[in-house]
Structure of TetR/AcrR family transcriptional regulator:
Amino acid sequence: MARSCEKEKKRERILKKSWELFKKNGYEETKIERITKEVGISKGSFYTYFKTKEDVLFSILEKIEIEIENSINDIDTSEEPSKVLYNLLEKRVELFLGYVQNMKLENLYIMKSGQIDEFKNKITIFYTTYIKENIIKNYGNKKIWNLEIISKYINSSIEGYFLEEIFENKGVDKDFENRAKIAIKEIARFIDSALK
């Protein structure tokens, strides 16, 4: 039992340090040798836990996916849909900032690369389904809409806005959080008025 716990701790250290290095140096530029040096393990020990650097990335993304789903599912969906929408936007920005904190702008492009398409698709489906089931349907609007299309549109608009904001300002600057708070209020107000 203690050995199993120790192995899990070492695996977590590898994941944590790898994510730091991926954010700082980029995925392609981060070599396994650098990861093992930073963690203080041999290459052989690394291969006990992961077959490739890509396995490390996928394990990190799987962990992030679980964190996102757990965090979003903690939102109280019994509130008014406009409040659920606002809380979703706020939580998404908070999560996003946590993941890209200390990341160089050029390393944000990993999110736009083919390396993580499966991850992006899963997260998109999760957010789209969440918006449809916990926000749009709760407005009780009698208009006949294709909820799937509207949910996808809302999700991609939110994502696109914040990514554009980051690239336009060449990264997450010190004022990003303040601009994000203003944007969240405006976006939530706009979507709320459209769905009523």
User: Anything to note?
Assistant: Residues 57-195 form a domain with the Tetracycline Repressor; domain 2 fold (CATH 1.10.357). The CA atoms of residues 25 and 107 lie 7 Å apart.
